[in-house]
Specification:
The chain is an all-alpha fold. Helix content is 73%, strand content 2%. Pfam families: BPD_transp_2 (PF02653).
Length: 346
């Protein structure tokens, strides 16, 4: 009876959080200024990318460096499906667009869905060679995948327009799309984490050999995490393309993966709540500190513009946070664990 009561209370708290997130999405879209909405859109997209990346890297413990590759695939698939044939012919200068590229056309929902499915199918096929190695070797293999995707984008001008990229992508990514899909991604990933598959992922993270000895199919577990992560990274890439309205291979360098790695480590590897907090801290924080690059008057002292100063200050903040919070802001804890701790202290 007590367990049923606790479970019901937890469900009510989760429902309240979801309703609050939905309300905030609606309120921000309708009442915030365009600049603020743009920042929140960007934060929402990176929440999708961070929580999905955390599933393979933090929850399952596989040091993977592939996100930029899957984000690129999602972005290009969405762009190709959204830009009409006339727009393709107008902007493809290096080579004429392929006939099948001109023939492809869909609405935004199907473009995002196909982006996620294609990324997931590619991740499924990659899992067979990729998960033959572990640790640093896995990182090198997945890092190479990201480089390959970028090189293919540059050297396939009839599909991707090469180094020039694809422009004039319809701007569909408003907060209803980005915020709604971010909420959906968080709910799906949390449900996976608290399922038997999630417990198996954590067992693989803690000791893969012991998990194998206990009868867990480690390859299946890692493949599920890898495929799910790739699906949402592909969808996030599609949303990013429809937000920026212009993409090129330079957008999907290793810096994108490195940025996501900073976010999930700062938030706490293995914590979805931490991935969300880390995204807000990094993406919104960097925008908020933009005033540091501009001329300032501080206590009567006038300083000239110092471009890049915000990155210096932000780096110092990161160093301080990681010195005093070795496991990140949340460690491996989720929001519900903080409520339990407070209740136990009382």
């Amino acid at each position: 009876m007590v367990q049923d009561t606790i479970f019901t209370k937890q469900r009510m708290i989760n429902l309240a959080i979801i309703i609050t997130a939905i309300w905030f999405t609606w309120f921000a879209q309708n009442f915030f200024d365009e600049y603020t909405v743009r920042i929140i859109n960007n934060v929402a997209i990176f929440i999708i990318l961070a929580v999905s990346y955390n599933l393979i890297n933090g929850i399952t413990g596989q040091f993977s460096l592939e996100p930029n590759g899957f984000v690129a695939i999602g972005a290009y698939v969405t762009a190709i499906l959204l830009v009409d044939a006339e727009g393709m012919q107008y902007q493809y200068y290096i080579a004429d667009p392929s006939p099948w590229v001109l023939a492809l056309q869909s609405n935004f929902f199907w473009a995002l869905l196909f982006s996620g499915i294609i990324s997931a199918l590619l991740a499924l096929s990659l899992s067979f060679p990729v998960f033959r190695v572990r640790g640093d070797y896995l990182a090198i293999v997945t890092l190479g995948f990201g480089f390959i995707i970028r090189v293919l984008a540059i050297n396939s001008p009839e599909i991707t327009n090469g180094s020039l990229g694809i422009n004039d992508i319809p701007e569909y990514s408003n907060l209803y799309w980005t915020g709604g899909i971010a909420i959906f991604a968080v709910v799906v990933i949390l449900n996976i984490i608290y399922s038997k598959f999630g417990r198996a992922m954590k067992a693989v993270r803690d000791d893969e050999d012991a998990a194998t000895a206990m009868g867990i199919n480690t390859f299946k577990t890692k493949t599920l995490a890898f495929t799910t992560s790739a699906f949402f990274e592909g969808v996030g890439g599609g949303l990013l393309a429809a937000l920026l309205t212009s993409i090129s291979p330079d957008l999907f360098t290793f810096f994108l993966t490195f940025q996501l790695l900073i976010i999930i480590v700062l938030g706490g590897l293995g914590s979805t709540t931490g991935a969300i907090l880390g995204t807000v801290f990094v993406m919104a924080g960097l925008e908020w500190m933009r005033f540091l690059d501009e001329p300032m008057n501080f206590m009567g002292i006038h300083t000239e513009a110092m471009p890049g100063m915000r990155m210096v200050v932000f780096s110092l903040i990161l160093i301080i946070v990681m010195l005093f919070a070795r496991e990140g802001l949340m460690g491996k804890k989720e929001l519900k664990d903080l409520f339990k701790k407070k209740k136990a202290n009382k």
